[in-house]
Amino acid sequence: MKIGELAKLAQTQSENIRFYEREGLLPEANRTEANYRVYDESHIQRLAFIRHCRSLDMTLGEIRTLLHFKDAPEENCHEVNALLDEHIDHVAIRIRELRVLEKELKSLRLQCQAGNASADCGILSGLEKAARNAKHHRARDLGHAAHIQRTHQQIALSPRSSAANRPNEVRSIRVR
Ligand SMILES: [Zn+2]
Q: Given this model, what pLDDT does residue 114 score?
């Protein structure tokens, strides 16, 4: 099958398939004489595996390790277990970060009660004040759990997730 068909079956986009190929997660497709990529059943399964791991917010590096062990059934899997433990830690760190974020937002919310003229809005002036001292926020953003992005998906992709972490990968499924 061609790339479009594979993308449809795997509910992802052709860009992602090419991206995983470049990253070495998916084996290179064979080419037809007209130089089209052709894929088979094994690609569907591997792609489903990758997509599922991505839905669990694993990094490409983590998935690469998992695939290595999938391809080496005789190897001891203790590294897989360790990887999962580590990833669970990443999630826990992210949860703590989100709790801090929630607290910040709640205290910001308390800065404005009844509707005022926007010029007097405590939230807007609080945001402006915080923006002036924003350096520490950026430092915190670079924490090692930064790849756990799920909670922001519905809102917007933050710059660090699209640029630093997953170049060229489209996370949401566009409906055509
Ligand atoms: Zn992780």
A: 81
Give the global pTM: 0.70
Ligand 1 (ion): which residues have CB within 5 A?
87, 90
For residue 66, report the distance from its CA to the centre of ligand 1, in Å.
Answer: 12
Two tokens, residue 116 = 């005022």
The overall average pLDDT reported for the chain is 83
Domains of the chain: 3-58 (1.10.1660.10), 86-165 (no CATH)
User: Rounded to the nearest whole angstrom, what is the distance from the C-alpha of residue 148 to the centroid of ligand 1?
Assistant: 7
Q: What is the pLDDT of residues 144-164, one digit of tens each?
A: 556 666 555 444 444 444 444
